[in-house]
Structure formats: structure tokens, C-alpha cells
Specification:
5-stranded antiparallel beta sheet
């Protein structure tokens, strides 16, 4: 095992310091995060692979909806105003489903943050994923932290020009790939990719690729942590979501303080020494440029890379992991109270250890049951309620709708035989991707008959028409009632429609107008 002085001390200052806040318009100080390795870094690689895999592969999935609908599993069909998601088809008037999903996403974000902190920011946020991917490219071309810092500080040479040009060129290609994947969600992917390559795609496709290339390149490659610090509102909102039982990345000062690189000399002098050797590894790997030892800061995205960095140092020193770990504020305060004898003295690590140098049984440790508290149940209940409401609505919704508009001018016509005729625009909405015969029936309104323009049959109380798949059919319908059957200036009646198979139906209450003299 190594001793404290054998651990390399990295020259890493916190760019975003909790003790000294930068002016809002200060020039950006570059951050050169060191490559980390460990369980959290491997988890982040896995999340990156999964999220990017979903993003790039989803438009290419096929789903058979029959001959009258697109076979792309996930498609936002703006031209026909449809959103397809496997078996689900959403029409414009059903946008409340999308709104409901956004509400669920917001409540889910509250739930995740209140339990495990900014896990969304640290692992699955698109900004985090793209920055990780751009850093992979940067390290592959220019080397790890020290090499990149040296290259950045050095003069412009042919080598530096080649390296920087290569890095930015690959960043631009990566940004173009992000924009290129996005447009495939809005048109048939196999067809569109051929059109894009041939240069025959719609101009909006190329504009979208250009805009997303620029934003991905700028946000992921150039701005990086500034997007999270200044542009994203969540760092300022998260404080309202966290409480003393929320898991956050924490430097356990009750164990690490007082920190020293010369433990033997300090112990020989009879002074306490903590586990922190002040190596700055946690600062060097932080993509946000903070020092986790300063406590919670709004810049921290809880990516947990500082945990990996610190654990690797503890391995070299032969000490237990957890100097930097996920912990709750309540556990931290309880352990700090033990280490400071109730706050009556400075941190003394000997108070949290036994004679054999193991940790005291009095120390508080996180348990999964601490997550299950009233706030968690409230968020989970609200999230589930919205989800079940959407699911119930989706399973019980009708795919046949009816809307009727009464002619405004004239509101009625008196025919030669004295009967009164009203005109209506009847709109039949067939919301399934196959044609079906629709029976239109007149209910109530004694003695009345109707006829439809384009329907070749004599006036009657019902007629059948064919509705195209996934289309709105508009019919001009005239309703005639004999004068002796008219009961008033206005009479209510119903149009009823049903498919020929009798599976779905819809009704609409309309008004029949008549002149006073008809009474």
C-alpha cells in the first residue's frame, strides 16, 4: 500500500468554487476533466450506449399498420398531422396525450431528484451524454488532462493545428449525425436518407440538420458546463426538490478532515489526521470544475465521477471506499455530530473509529427505506395517477367521431310543398388506418328525412357512406321536415353514426330551425 506522500497531487483548482463565485459575465475558464475509471464511469458508458442507441435506432424500427398507414414504428407525420408510436396513433385533437406525457416527465423529474438528486442531469440528460461523447473524441485525439492542458497553453504549431482541426471536424460530424438522426423521426427514414444523400430532400431537412449540428457542436463541444450552469433552470429549482433524506454526492468531511499529505508527521505530533490526502483527484475529474469537498453546489450534476476518483486513491492507500459517496444530509449531520463531539470541537476522525481502525457502529448509513417517505409517495402517486388516467383514456377512446355544423345563411328554406329544409355540414372522422362503411342515422325529429350530396339514393332517415382510412369525410346533408310535423321555432335532434360492423358509434345533438309561420 502507498503512503500519503506517494499519491500524486494534481494541480487542479475548482473553476466553479463555492467559496468564490465568478462574476456573471466573466470570461470562461476552460475545464480539462481527467479521465475517470470505476463503477460509476462504467455505468455512464452503459447509459450513453443505451440512450444513443435508442436515439439512432428508433426511426428505423418498422411496424405493420396495414396498406393505408406508414410502417415506421415511431413517426411524427406533420404533413398528415399524425403521431405514430407503435400501436398508438395520436391525432391533433388528442394532443392532451402529449401534454399528459410532459406532465408525467415533470413529476418524474421531481420524483428522481427528491430521492437520488440530479441523477437525470448526471446520467441521461442529452447535454451530459453529448459532452461525454465529445470528451471521448477530445481525449482520443489530444490525450488526457495533462496533455490537453499542455497543448492548449503551447504555441500554435503544425501539430497543434492538425490536432485541433481533427477534433473540431469530428465534433461537427458528430453534431451532423445528431441532426441527421432527428429528421428521420419526421419522415420515412429509408426514403429520406436516400433523398438527403442525393440532395433531393426538402429544404427544411437540410436546415434542421444545419441548426442541430450547430447547437450540438456549440453546446456539447464549446460551452459544455456553461449550459448546465447558466442556461438550464434546473440547478436553481433542485433546491426545492431536495430534503435531508435525498441522496446526493457528498464529501464525508467527518471522515476526511483534517486533510494532510504528511499523515505520519502529523500523527507523530499528536494531531488528528483524516483520510483525505488532498490529492485533488476529485477536482481533476469533475466535468463541472467544482471541488466536491466544498459541499453541495448548484453546478454539481451528481455524475459521481469524483466518487470513482476518490475510491481509486483509497484503494492505493488501503483504506475503505466512501470518503466521497452518495449520502443523505441527515446521515452526514449525524456522523458529523459524532466526529465533532456534538459540535463542541473540530473534526476528530478518531471519534468515528474503533481501536482496530474500523468505523464505529454508531455511524449512520444509508438504507433504502429512507427513500420511502411522504414526499416520495406523493410524487409517485401523482405520477401514477396521471399515467393511469392516460392509459384508461387511451384504451377506451373511440376511433369514430362526428361533428355537425348548421348552415348559417340561410338557416332554413321553405320548399314548394310547405316543408322546411335545413342544411348541415356533417364531418365523419375515421381514425383507424382502414376504410369502413359508416351508417348515418337521423334520430328524433318526427317525419323528417335527409339526403346527402354525393350519395345516390332517395331521401330517408338513414344512409350509408364509405369513409377513407385515417381521413375526415365531409358531407353536405339536407334535413327536410313536413310543415305539419314542426313543433316549434327550434327543435333538437341527433345525428348518429356507427360503423357497419356495429363496433363503434357516435352522436351529435343538432338544432332544426323553422319560421314562426310554420307553426
Amino acid at each position: 500500500m502507498l503512503d500519503n506522500t506517494q499519491i500524486e497531487r494534481l494541480e487542479a483548482d475548482a473553476v466553479n468554487s463555492a467559496n468564490t463565485r465568478q462574476p456573471l459575465y466573466a470570461a470562461r475558464k476552460k475545464i480539462f476533466p481527467k479521465r475517470a475509471s470505476g463503477s460509476f464511469r462504467r455505468f455512464k458508458w452503459s447509459v450513453m450506449a443505451i440512450t444513443l442507441g435508442i436515439y439512432y435506432l428508433t426511426p428505423w424500427l418498422r411496424w405493420d399498420r396495414g396498406p393505408f398507414a406508414p410502417d415506421q414504428a415511431v413517426l411524427v407525420d406533420l404533413a398528415n398531422r399524425r403521431f405514430y408510436f407503435f400501436v398508438i396513433e395520436i391525432w391533433p385533437q388528442e394532443f392532451y396525450y402529449v401534454a399528459g406525457l410532459l406532465v408525467m416527465a415533470g413529476i418524474g423529474l421531481f420524483l428522481i431528484t427528491s430521492t437520488v438528486g440530479r441523477a437525470w442531469c448526471g446520467y441521461t440528460c442529452p447535454q451530459t451524454v453529448w459532452v461525454d461523447l465529445f470528451l471521448v473524441v477530445e481525449r482520443a485525439i489530444e490525450g488526457d488532462r495533462n496533455a490537453r492542458m499542455k497543448l492548449d497553453a503551447g504555441p500554435w504549431t503544425a501539430r497543434k493545428l492538425v490536432l485541433r482541426t481533427s477534433r473540431h471536424a469530428i465534433w461537427l460530424v458528430t453534431g451532423a449525425a445528431s441532426g441527421g438522426a432527428w429528421i428521420f423521426y419526421f419522415a420515412d427514414a429509408p426514403t429520406l436518407v436516400v433523398e438527403v444523400i442525393k440532395g433531393s430532400a426538402a429544404p427544411v431537412a437540410y436546415v434542421t440538420i444545419a441548426v442541430l449540428t450547430a447547437t450540438t457542436y456549440t453546446f456539447g463541444g464549446l460551452m459544455r458546463e456553461q449550459v448546465c450552469t447558466y442556461m438550464c433552470p434546473w440547478p436553481r429549482i433542485q433546491a426545492a426538490m431536495l430534503d435531508e433524506n435525498s441522496l446526493t454526492v457528498t464529501y464525508n468531511g467527518w471522515r476526511g478532515e483534517p486533510r494532510s499529505r504528511h499523515a505520519k508527521k502529523v500523527l507523530a505530533a499528536g494531531q488528528p489526521v483524516g483520510d483525505c490526502v488532498d490529492c485533488n483527484s476529485c477536482v481533476a475529474v469533475c466535468p463541472m470544475g467544482i471541488d466536491i469537498r466544498d459541499g453541495q453546489q448548484l453546478e454539481c450534476i451528481t455524475c459521481a465521477l469524483c466518487i470513482d476518483a476518490c475510491d481509486s486513491v483509497m484503494d492505493k492507500l488501503g483504506r475503505k471506499h466512501g470518503l466521497v459517496s452518495y449520502a443523505t444530509l441527515s446521515d452526514y449531520n449525524a456522523n458529523m455530530a459524532i466526529a465533532t463531539a456534538g459540535g463542541s470541537r473540530a473534526v476528530d476522525p478518531s471519534l468515528v473509529r474503533t481501536a482496530d481502525d474500523s468505523f464505529s457502529d454508531r455511524l449512520a448509513h444509508f438504507h433504502i427505506r429512507k427513500i420511502f417517505r411522504p414526499r416520495t409517495f406523493f410524487y409517485l402517486g401523482a405520477w401514477s395517477a396521471v399515467g393511469f388516467a392516460l392509459l384508461y383514456s387511451l384504451l377506451t377512446r373511440e376511433r369514430l367521431e362526428l361533428n355537425v355544423l348548421h348552415d348559417r345563411n340561410p338557416q332554413f328554406v321553405t320548399l314548394s310543398d310547405g316543408s322546411i329544409r335545413n342544411g348541415y355540414t356533417v364531418k365523419l372522422l375515421n381514425m383507424i388506418p382502414e376504410p369502413r362503411a359508416i351508417i348515418v342515422t337521423l334520430q328524433d325529429l318526427p317525419g323528417a328525412e335527409m339526403s346527402a350530396v354525393g350519395v345516390d339514393r332517395s331521401p330517408a332517415r338513414s344512409f350509408t357512406t364509405l369513409a377513407d382510412p385515417d381521413r375526415l369525410k365531409s358531407l353536405k346533408v339536407f334535413v327536410r321536415q313536413p310543415a305539419d310535423q314542426i313543433k316549434g321555432v327550434t327543435q333538437s335532434f341527433k345525428f348518429r353514426i356507427e360503423d357497419e360492423a356495429g363496433l363503434e358509434s357516435a352522436e351529435y345533438t343538432a338544432t332544426f330551425n323553422a319560421p314562426e309561420i310554420a307553426r
